[in-house]
């Protein structure tokens, strides 16, 4: 199945410092003391047993409170860091797409009020960045704040900036799309391309149809325009797909749900006509073959010879201990020496995983 790790999976990519929150861990098994006493395998006074159980419960309670306090402190720090980022001049804010993604990912509902204040800013860049951060938080309070801004002055300004033919398609993503479309603008080749590349992929992830004109301007499906053009072309093809979400069904493990959410969202280096691929472990052992149809992605166990037929892909996922955030590294390869890595950030709302960011991780 998919492999997992408790540290950020790989440090070569721009989101490598992400998910430094509580690590994935397991609580050691505590034997049922009453059962051991009944079987005669544990000889301690019942008074001592009661004290031991009380001490164990107290220790677990303290650990839980400490973990919650640490998480609360981290969230507060991330919110303050995010607010400082939003205070940057527009030009600096536009080249910090990756920092915006990572800081928003580690921010919770407690930051909604501070972010909402930026939705009335005169800078459409700052409004868009704040709207994206609120969409990542994803709670009702956050989405209500975005909706109010979309139907208000900020939304009017964002729609007015679109080509007339695109204004009718402007939806709830119009504010954040305005930020990422501006961040994507500029040369498609040369230094500083990674933030623009990530911005294009984020527009595709958001299914922001109002940004189609900006993506079409940058797109070059032949690949001669460089990574940004390729990302814009992929984002345009993703627009007609269903949202980047996946229910965490009880019949499958969480790692598989994360993989399915990533595939449904889109993997940039895969050709859109790739209907099947082989998932491997990192030692090259075949695991399963994924296939796509009108009903979505499905998989079967790998068979001998599959590694000679299909392009290859590897997943590495990590989940925080609260089970509400995850990262997924996707390694794709269609031949020797042709490896590309992308990093996905996912958050869980209710029982649904949703992709909140995609970032380029490197080639090999």
Characterization of this structure:
The chain is of the alpha+beta class and 364 residues long. It folds into two domains: 89-238, no CATH class; 246-363, no CATH class. The protein has 13 helices and nine strands. It has helices at 33-39, 46-86, 90-94, 97-105, 112-116, 124-137, 140-150, 153-160, 174-184, 193-206, 212-218, 227-238, 254-265, and strands at 3-4, 245-247, 276-280, 286-293, 296-301, 312-319, 325-333, 339-349, 352-363. Strands 1, 2, 3, 4, 5, 6, 7, 8 and 9 form a nine-stranded mixed β-sheet that branches. A hairpin with a 5-residue loop joins strand 3 (276-280) and strand 4. Helix 9 (174-184) runs antiparallel to helix 10 (193-206). It is globular. The protein starts with a strand and ends with a strand. Mean pLDDT is 78; it is low at 1-14 and 16-44.
Q: Report the β-strand fraction as a percent range.
A: 15-25%
Q: What is the string of SSEs from the N terminus onward?
A: EHHHHHHHHHHHHEHEEEEEEE
**Assembly level:** single chain
Number of helices: 13
Average pLDDT metric: 78
Class inferred from helices and paired strands: alpha+beta
Distance between the termini: 24 Å
Sum up the overall morphology in one term. Answer: globular
As residue ranges, the low-confidence spans are: 1-14, 16-44
Give descriptors for this structure.
364 residues; alpha+beta; 2 domains; nine-stranded mixed beta sheet; 13 helices; 43% helix
Blueprint of the fold:
Layout lengths: L2 E2 L28 H7 L6 H41 L3 H5 L2 H9 L6 H5 L7 H14 L2 H11 L2 H8 L13 H11 L8 H14 L5 H7 L8 H12 L6 E3 L6 H12 L10 E5 L5 E8 L2 E6 L10 E8 L5 E9 L5 E11 L2 E12 L1
Parallel strand pairs: 1-6, 3-6
Antiparallel strand pairs: 2-9, 3-4, 4-5, 6-7, 7-8, 8-9
């Amino acid at each position: 199945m998919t492999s997992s790790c408790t540290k950020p999976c790989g440090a070569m990519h721009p989101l490598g410092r992400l998910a430094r929150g509580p690590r994935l861990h397991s609580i050691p098994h505590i034997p049922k003391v009453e059962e051991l006493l009944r079987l005669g395998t544990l000889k301690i006074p019942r008074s001592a047993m009661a004290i031991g159980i009380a001490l164990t419960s107290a220790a677990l309670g303290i650990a839980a409170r400490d973990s919650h306090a640490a998480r609360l402190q981290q969230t507060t720090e991330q919110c303050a860091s995010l607010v400082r980022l939003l205070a940057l001049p527009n030009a600096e804010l536009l080249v910090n797409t990756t920092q915006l993604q990572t800081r928003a990912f580690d921010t919770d509902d407690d930051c909604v009020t501070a972010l909402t204040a930026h939705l009335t800013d005169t800078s459409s860049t700052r409004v868009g960045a704040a709207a994206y951060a609120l969409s990542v938080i994803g709670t009702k309070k956050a989405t209500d704040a975005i909706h109010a801004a979309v139907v208000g002055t900020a939304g009017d300004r964002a729609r007015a900036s679109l080509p007339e033919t695109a204004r009718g398609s402007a939806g709830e993503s119009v504010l954040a799309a305005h930020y990422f479309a501006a961040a994507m603008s500029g040369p498609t080749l040369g230094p500083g391309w990674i933030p623009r590349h990530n911005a294009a992929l984020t527009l595709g992830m958001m299914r922001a149809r109002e940004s189609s004109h900006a993506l079409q301007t940058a797109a070059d499906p032949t690949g001669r325009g460089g990574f940004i053009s390729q990302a814009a072309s992929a984002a345009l093809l993703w627009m007609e797909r269903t949202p980047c979400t996946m229910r965490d069904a009880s019949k499958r493990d969480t790692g598989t749900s994360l993989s399915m959410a990533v595939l449904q969202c889109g993997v940039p280096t895969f050709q859109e006509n790739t209907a099947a691929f082989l998932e491997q472990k990192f030692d090259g052992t075949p695991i399963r073959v994924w296939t796509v149809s009108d009903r979505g992605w499905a998989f079967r166990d790998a068979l001998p010879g599959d590694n000679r037929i299909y392009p290859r892909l590897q997943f590495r996922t990590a989940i925080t201990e609260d089970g509400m955030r995850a990262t997924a590294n996707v390694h794709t390869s269609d031949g020797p020496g042709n490896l590309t890595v992308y990093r996905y950030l996912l958050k869980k709302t209710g029982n649904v995983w949703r992709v909140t960011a995609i970032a380029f991780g490197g080639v090999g």
